[in-house]
Write a structure and sequence with these properties.
By secondary structure, the protein is α/β, with parallel strands linked by helices. It has two domains: 174 residues, Rossmann fold (3-Layer(aba) Sandwich), CATH 3.40.50; 218 residues, 3-Layer(aba) Sandwich (Rossmann fold), CATH 3.40.50.12030. Helices cover 38% and strands 17% of the residues. It has 13 helices and 14 strands. The strands form three sheets. The chain has a six-stranded parallel sheet with strand order 7-6-8-9-13-14, with helices on both faces. The chain has a five-stranded parallel sheet with strand order 2-1-3-4-5, with helices on both faces. It is globular, with a radius of gyration of 24 Å. The chain starts with a strand and ends in a 10-residue tail after the last helix.
Length: 415
């Protein structure tokens, strides 16, 4: 087995013992290590492979500038920029196979920059005292970042934190040995959806697109899934986008913390990626199911999906607001954009006879979106429900049209 090398990043002036312990574990498991210091004020006990001065210089600054700014937040952003750029360059030069960044809130802030800079498929682990915390906004998370809670690790080594640190060391080394990097042999389609109880078009569309020569990745549009989707769209990873569940946009503009970020429904357009959009489950805002329902939603119908997630059913004014937000986001698109409006409904629970059916609310939403949609967006209406075969056929009709006219291609490197 080829020996793998792990890049370890941290503030070696204050966390020397912890970082060296991680390195020792990796070495004991047959891995190699390169080290990067992102301290500002102090120095490591022993020199690292990449010094804090090299890090700051890579970002176009210096340690003196970081110190003189007199603000630890600004200073760490200087180091974050340099660490991200240096890590990316070193990976491209083949200097390491995976990365592990350790820190508290300051180190985690920097770690998020580093992980976002590295390509998908590069094992990247953040060991943090605030792992999984709501302090971390979804838009800062790289699609394949792994986090491990650094329990008992605020100051110094102990048996509790060694348990976390040793697992992290083994995890990142194991990941470099096991990872299967993304296959670029087929053009990739990015699709958004929810579970099959709410949205079912993926069952038809995925094999149909694969038959046409594409690889298809379906993203679960429940906040973090949409974040991963938008991150990859911003990188130009997709040859075609089928953004058929835009429910996270409503989450964001109506104040839910289950958000994919303010740039939801914009990144495919900003890179010019051809996209087909439909407002799957637009009528719902998801909230954390185990928390008390906020007072502003007390007069709304709710749907408890499970103990983790509860959906709020939007009133007519809110549906108009969400429709206008769709138009605002899509107006920024630079590439071919088709918006399909399923006049039969946009989620399994809004069919006639189902508990969330609201024909007037659907008409309000569709009428607003039809009126407000920007000129750069082609509007297509279908009488079908979004879960009907007719809807999937409408999507495939547009895909085939673009294949025929050369807007998209099922061959890598074309169109």
């Amino acid at each position: 087995m080829t020996t793998k090398t792990i890049l370890i990043i941290g503030t070696y002036d204050t966390k020397d013992d912890e970082l060296n312990y991680i390195a020792d574990v990796i070495h004991s498991q047959g891995g190699n290590v390169v080290t990067m210091d992102v301290s500002v004020l102090g120095n490591p006990t022993d020199p690292t492979d990449y010094s804090k001065h090299q890090v700051a210089k890579e970002g176009g600054s210096s340690i003196r500038s970081a110190i003189d700014c007199g603000d630890e937040n600004q200073a760490m952003q200087i180091m974050g920029k340099g660490a991200a750029l240096l890590s990316c360059r070193l990976f491209n030069e083949g200097k390491f196979d995976g990365a592990l960044v350790l820190g508290g809130t300051m180190g985690t802030d920097l770690a998020l920059d580093v992980c976002s800079a590295l390509p998908i498929g590069v094992p990247k682990y953040i060991v943090s005292t605030v792992s999984f915390s709501p302090l971390i906004p979804p838009e800062r998370m790289a699609p394949d970042t792994q986090m491990i809670l650094w329990a008992g690790g605020l100051y110094g080594l102990n048996s509790i934190c060694k348990s976390s640190l040793s697992q992290a060391a083994g995890a990142v080394l194991g990941a470099t040995r096991a990872v299967e990097a993304p296959d670029r042999k087929k053009p990739l389609v990015g699709m958004t959806s929810l579970g099959k109880t709410a949205l079912k078009y993926m069952v038809t569309l995925k094999p149909a697109l694969e038959d046409r020569g594409f690889e298809v990745a379906v993203f679960h549009a429940t906040g973090m899934g949409g974040r991963a989707f938008e991150s990859l769209a911003a990188q130009g990873a997709f040859s075609l986008v089928l953004d058929l569940c835009t429910q996270e946009l409503g989450n964001h503009i109506l104040g839910s913390n289950i958000s994919a970020g303010a740039d939801r429904l914009t990144n495919a357009g900003s890179t010019g990626t051809p996209q087909i959009v439909a407002p799957g489950c637009y009528d719902l805002v998801d909230i954390v199911g185990w928390q008390e329902i906020p007072k502003k939603w007390h007069d709304h119908t709710t749907h408890a999906h499970n103990r983790l997630l509860t959906s709020i059913v939007l009133d007519h004014a809110e549906r108009s607001q969400v429709a206008r937000a769709h138009a605002t986001q899509l107006k920024q698109a630079n590439g071919p954009t088709v918006l399909i409006l399923p006049e039969g409904g946009c989620g399994e629970w809004d069919r006639p006879g189902e508990g969330l059916h609201d024909a007037v609310g659907l008409d309000v939403f569709l009428a607003t979106l039809e009126k407000e949609h920007p000129q750069n967006v082609e509007l297509v209406k279908t009488q079908a429900h979004i879960n009907d075969d007719e809807f999937a056929n409408a999507v495939l009709f547009q895909v085939d049209k673009w294949l025929t006219d050369g807007t998209i291609s099922n061959q890598v490197g074309q169109a």
